[in-house]
Amino acid sequence: MTKHSGGKVGKAGKTLGSKTSSKKQKSKAGKTLKNIRTINIKNVP
């Protein structure tokens, strides 16, 4: 699996993977990843 290290996706992944992130931060990161995934699915022909 490709590891994203930049942009919104990379930051969200790092936040979710971190043990020190707060519940609020992880919630926001999860929503970001969900939104990106939804956008990518809609753009597939």
From TrEMBL:
Superkingdom field: Bacteria
Q: Compositionally biased, Polar residues: which spans? A: 35-45
According to the record, the residues making up region (Disordered) are 1-45
Give residue spans, biased composition: Basic residues. Answer: 21-31
Name of the protein described by the UniProt record? Uncharacterized protein
* Organism annotation: Exiguobacterium aurantiacum
